[in-house]
Amino acid sequence: MSFTLPALFTPLLSLLGMGIGIGALLGFTARRFHVEGDPVIEQINDLLPQTQCGQCGYPGCRPYAEAIAAGDAINKCPPGGEKTIADLASLLNVATVPLDTGYGQVEPRKVAFIREAQCIGCAKCIPACPVDAILGAPKFTHTVIASECTGCDLCIEPCPVDCIDMVTVEDDDPAVEIQEQTASRLACINCALCVPVCPVDLQPHELYFACRDHNLNQAQSLNLMHCIECGKCDKACPSGLPLVDHYQAAKADLARQQKERERAGRAKRRFERHQLRMARLADEEESRRRKRAELAINRQRVSADSIQAALARVKARKSEK
Amino acid sequence: MTDIFLILVGAVLVNNFVLTQFLGLCPFMGVSGRVETAVGMSAATLFVLTLASACSYLVFHYLLVPLGVEYLRTIAFIVVIAAVVSATEMIMRKTSPLLHRVLGIFLPLITSNCAVLGVALLNINQSRSFADSVFYGFGAAAGFSLVLILFAAMREKLDSSDVPEPFRGPAIAMITAGLMSLAFMGFSGMV
Fold it and tell me: I want to staple A113 with a disulfide (CB 3.0 to 4.6 A). Which of A167, A175, A273, B173 is the partner?
């Protein structure tokens, strides 16, 4: 009796073979085109304030991001403050912890300022700046590009004449003060009288809760930015709550956050470019040194050769005599 | 040359994949919110569809036909397309990070785009040659891109227009798509 393969075998085997083949191919590409880097590190890095100040003990924000991804504490960043810690905690799904004050205190934003009368133009502060925000050349007065300075104070230490000060900057858009009217301190009772009067179809009471609790994401998803601040909800509110004031404060907060993110993005790019520049300079220095060393060896060899040649000549002349 | 031209016109306008064959409607509705995402999706689709029609042709004619298991083509094509897309993503991430950043999130989405599978199967059904299959795939993707970007531009306009309450959101998008489809019906019979 001849043994024939059941009809099911061909498709099974061909699919199995194809699966194995494709799996091997994919495995090979994954190995061959392996990319270093963890997407989580990028996400963490994007949440850090990019001041590159090194207060956390790491040389810049990216190294700290790598350390966090490897399990370091998330509360070592004084410039980021509570906001950064909260963002990191929600990204990494860990508990929020207060800032470790051993690494510094939360301080208002500062920028470096060079007292130009005292600057001797030594250019020592320029490589120290992680974001290349100091402008100057040897024997010329330096100055700081205030809009790009992250306030990391890494330029203070290398300055030989101590002509750099850290100056607190005034916030461009100070927080909007909310003046709760003393006449009415009633809470929102969810009467929803404000809803029909809103000309842009928002949910003013929901928005009020979000803004009061500083839940900016929630406020944004309730279309806070669509509010035209017409004040109709204020008038409709039987508790007399200053609704529009809350919206304005929340909008100002959002704008400030946005500005900070933009500033951080700029600092990140400048830091990356600074590092590239430093690497290039180091490379050039290295190649120059190697060339010098080669030259010295060559010269030595040449002189040794000429001595040998002279000796040989003398020897030849002596044997002739 | 005219053959290729006819295939391209046929795939882009006359038998447009989205508006006349109703394939790939999911990304058509899903990523047409903004023109930038639509352009990213279009570029990714253009890339993958051309590649996938070539690969599926090779797999069918040099693997399935010799083994006598043509009826497995649907499963085989799904696997091949998924593998091609994954491999492309990996290679792109290494060799061209910029392109990867533009197309990155769209590539895995295309794996489940039925237009890709549709092109592969139609190529087999209409027994095209290798070159014709590739051009048909490219044409189908170009047609998809055309309507996707047009539709995204229209939806951006719609966002700022005063749409009656009951029609807001997906409803008006569906109506717009229907009107576009009607307009594309005008091309039928051209090739």
Answer: A167
